[in-house]
Amino acid sequence: MSKYTLNVNGKARTVDVEADTPLLWALRDTLNLVGTKYGCGVGACGTCTVHIDGQPARACQMPVSMLGKHKITTIEGLDARAMHPLQQAWQELDVPQCGYCQSGQIMSACALLKQSPKPTDAQIDEAMAGNLCRCATYVRIRAGIHRAAEIAQASTTGKGKK
Amino acid sequence: MKNHNPPGNHDLANKRGLPHDAPAPASAARRGFLRQSAAGGASLLLSLHAGGAIAAAAADDVNTDRGGDFVPNAFIRIGQDGRVTLVSKQPEIGQGIKTSLPMIIAEELDVDWKDVVVVQGDLNPIYGSQGAGGSTSTPTNYDNFHKLGATARALLVEAAARTWNVPAAECRTAGGAVSHAGSGRKLGYGALVRTASALPVPDAKGVALKDPSAYRLLGTRIGGVDNPLVVSGKPLFGIDVQVPGMLYATYVKCPTLGGRPVSANLDAVKAMAGVKDAFIIEGTANLNGLRPGVAIVANSTWNALRARKKLQVVWDDGEGANHSWAGFVAQAQALSKQRGAAVMRKDGDVDAALAGAARTVEAAYTYPFISHASMEPQNCTAWVKPDGAVELWAPTQNPGSGQALVASTFDIPKEKIQLHIVRSGGGFGRRLSSDFIVDAVAISQKVKAPVKLTWTREDDLQHDHFRAGGFHFLRGGVDAQGKLTAWHNHFVTFANRVEKGDGSVLQPGSGGNLSGDEFPGRWAASCLLEQTPIECRIPMGPWRAPGSNVFSWVFHSFIDELAHAANRDPVEFRLEMLGDKDMVPGSGERGAPYNVARMRNVLKAVADKAEWGKRKFPRGKGAGVAFHFSHRGYVAEVAEVTVSKDGKLTVDRVVVVTDIGAQIVNLSGAENQVEGSVIDGLSTLMYPALNFEKGRVVESNFHDYALLRMPDTPANIESHFLKTDYPVTGLGEPVFPPLAPAVCNAIFAATGKRVRELPLSKTDLSWS
């Protein structure tokens, strides 16, 4: 066991774990941030998607010993009031069924919106292809991303007017 | 709308003082609320007992009577502050029941949905049946839940009428308040709690229910009650449960299904960092129960998993070691040459009818074993306490069965087994089984501590209770007028040997038993349905719409073959097959009647909505149709597809017409189920298949067990509900079965290629 200090959601968090411990399990078992889910352990389902320095990454594939001072953002740190446009849109359109994959979906969608604030269906398909949803809520995930883009734009426009 | 009982960080200390026979207490947050309301005075409580009778009592009385903690044995609580708490008794697995059943109470109670808090009930006999399977939660609870809400409302109205000394008939309710038009008086429900609690409860039979035309909530779109927790990543699912002092476990079963461990390098494993214990569990002979294996218990999930990499086990593979998919295929083909082991239906003389038919078609249809692959792998947190009592936190569809399996496996009285139902990250039938629950109990029993067992994805995929594969050898005939005259199916299925009484029997896997009434049984004048089992050691279990999920594909594909052989339009051919009778009774005492009128209506409606026959498709594009009756629902679907010259399938449009009765409870949830069922149906058609070699499942994770992803999602899914006068029924399953045949029939229309084997990748769809 060794101590690693991680930058999680803007805070320094120290975990005392084996060096090869994936970020996923350090988040879930040590830091009690369970919004990041275990789905496959091989980077094939997207359920554990977090952001490392703003880029989407699979937490099950990132040993804590390699994370250094990189900024880690989890679903819990997406927005202080859990009112990120994606979180609003997901509730407005009632996207989830079981909900298990949705934090990973939202984190992938968030990275997409940063790059493409008004994504096309084709861009959404490409950016979201790494995230499985076994309940198959893909129609609503697609709609939710479009809606989040609208909400984000409206809020930007609103701020501009003020 | 709030949810007040996430599963994490349970405050266990407060529960230790409970007598062992006390019903399951609520989670910490919920108890906090209940204590608060009890301390604040009376709350109105109503509960539905197993028999459907309704009783009410003041919370203070219950508290006093029980002499201690407040026991959550009710569906409705109204505090003096007017806050309404509704208990959801059914497990939530993504089907939306935690939102939809409380909506029914809220409708009749006339409270605003925003003022309602929904809490998950534990397993408790006071709630009646708590299984979530077979799309039964809605039909079995719908009427009772109306009565629960209406009875509470009637008591509140009566309380107001007495307070104001006016006739109850002159009082109205809305938005959680009673008003009297004549005098302009109005009281919120909270102010009526004390008076209402003292009133005798009216017989539910005599309580007036709302006229559906007055519904303000039912039929609207309401977001899932747990959505705020889902989108913010709060603890919610079984895998999120944390209990003080908890250890983490992984459990390794024999890769050869049905095998067992003989020995293992346990000392080397125990020497690994963080490992608390490692041991062999003998298990039981029940393929669907506690299987033998090796448990590794550590101070974190990862430390258990990394120790597992060092584990070496000598396995006794057992009788399953000869299983291979290629072997099963050869076995099925040999069996198809013989008469079936059992006759499931025999009408007329099918051989004579085939000999006399104008045209005949012969075809074999094959589908593989598949896994459920819920996104949340199986897991359970169990605590076998020093006094032998067991506390469980289980993401299960079948809590009562889980409790029963723990009781029988470990010889523990049910009363000592407390089970908290935790939200499931997908069910699809997998969590009707309780193997993961007994695994966790066995491990906790050995290490004498609370244990969270988490299956790896590989465990989950390879040690599922699988959807059985199957082989259908079909012959059909049509007469000179193009009418179906003969139908012969020899179904080769899979079965486990199960001990029964003095001997043993071959029991087909769930969904692997062909009912003689399965369409078109009862509709073909000459019909022979035969069935032969292949014995195997592969555990099987119910998979979303068991049986129907593949029977519909086989039979509606073959019906399509016959329609084309007869040069008939596929919709016309099917309408004629269904015939003029409105109702066809089931065969035997347990046979389900088939409401042909309802099926004709959904079929005609889907043809209408999809402009069937009115549009011309160029080569490479086409439309297909199918219908299916299952789980009390009548569904017809039309799919429109494009197949590229190199054989790539795109589903452009799916039109779904569903008749599940008089009322859609939550329109948002219902539409979500339709869209999800369509895409799940397409996914299951296109991708998943399990192969077996030497009795081991070849596929191990999502890299080689593919499921549909966003890019394959159909652009347009149109859902229509026919509102009928029939009882309200469930929607978790019935939309799934018709999708695969509708798509395959569309592929045939587009390309002339007939898909007779799943998954789709087995068939070359390229054309020129």
Descriptive notes:
The complex is a heterodimer of chains A (162) and B (768). Chain A is globular and about 45 Å long. Chain A has 2 domains: 2-77, Ubiquitin-like (UB roll), CATH 3.10.20; 85-161, [2Fe-2S]-binding domain (DNA polymerase, domain 1). The mean pLDDT of chain A is 96. Chain A has helices at residues 23-30, 85-92, 102-115, 121-128, 138-161, and strands spanning 2-8, 11-17, 49-52, 55-58, 71-73. Helix content of chain A is 38%, strand content 15%. Chain A has a 5-stranded mixed beta sheet with strand order 2-1-5-3-4, sandwiched between helices. Chain B folds into 3 domains: 2-232, Aldehyde oxidase/xanthine dehydrogenase, molybdopterin binding domain (Aldehyde Oxidoreductase, domain 4, 2-Layer Sandwich); 238-318 and 378-454, Aldehyde Oxidoreductase, domain 4 (2-Layer Sandwich), CATH 3.30.365.10; 325-370 and 466-762, Aldehyde Oxidoreductase, domain 4 (2-Layer Sandwich). In chain B, the strands form 8 sheets. Chain B has a 7-stranded mixed beta sheet, with helices on both faces. In chain B, strands 1-6-5-4-2-3 form a 6-stranded mixed beta sheet. In chain B, helix 3 packs parallel to helix 4. The longest helix of chain B has 28 residues, at 137-164. Chain B is globular and about 80 Å long. The relative contact order of chain B is 0.11. Residues 1-43 and 47-73 of chain B have low confidence and may be disordered. Chains A and B meet through helix 1, helix 2, helix 3, helix 4 and helix 5 of A and helix 6, helix 8 and helix 17 of B.
Secondary-structure map:
The complex is a heterodimer of chains A (162) and B (768).
Chain A: E1 2-8, E2 11-17, H1 23-30, E3 49-52, E4 55-58, E5 71-73, H2 85-92, H3 102-115, H4 121-128, H5 138-161
Parallel strand pairs in A: 1-5
Antiparallel strand pairs in A: 1-2, 3-4, 3-5
Helix pairs in contact in A: 2-5, 3-4
Chain B: E1 2-3, H1 28-39, E2 44-48, E3 54-58, H2 59-66, E4 76-78, E5 84-88, H3 97-109, E6 116-120, H4 137-164, E7 171-174, E8 177-180, E9 185-188, H5 189-197, H6 227-232, E10 247-253, E11 260-264, H7 266-270, E12 275-281, E13 293-298, H8 301-308, E14 313-316, H9 325-336, E15 342-347, H10 350-355, E16 359-367, E17 379-384, E18 390-394, H11 399-410, E19 417-421, H12 435-447, E20 451-454, H13 457-462, E21 470-478, E22 484-500, E23 503-508, E24 526-535, H14 548-565, H15 570-578, E25 583-584, E26 594-595, H16 596-609, E27 621-630, E28 633-643, E29 649-659, H17 667-686, E30 692-693, E31 696-697, E32 716-721, H18 739-751
Parallel strand pairs in B: 1-6, 5-6, 10-20, 18-19, 22-24, 29-32
Antiparallel strand pairs in B: 2-3, 2-4, 4-5, 7-8, 8-9, 10-13, 11-14, 12-13, 15-24, 16-21, 17-18, 17-20, 21-22, 22-23, 25-26, 27-28, 28-29, 30-31
Helix pairs in contact in B: 3-4, 4-5, 11-12, 14-18
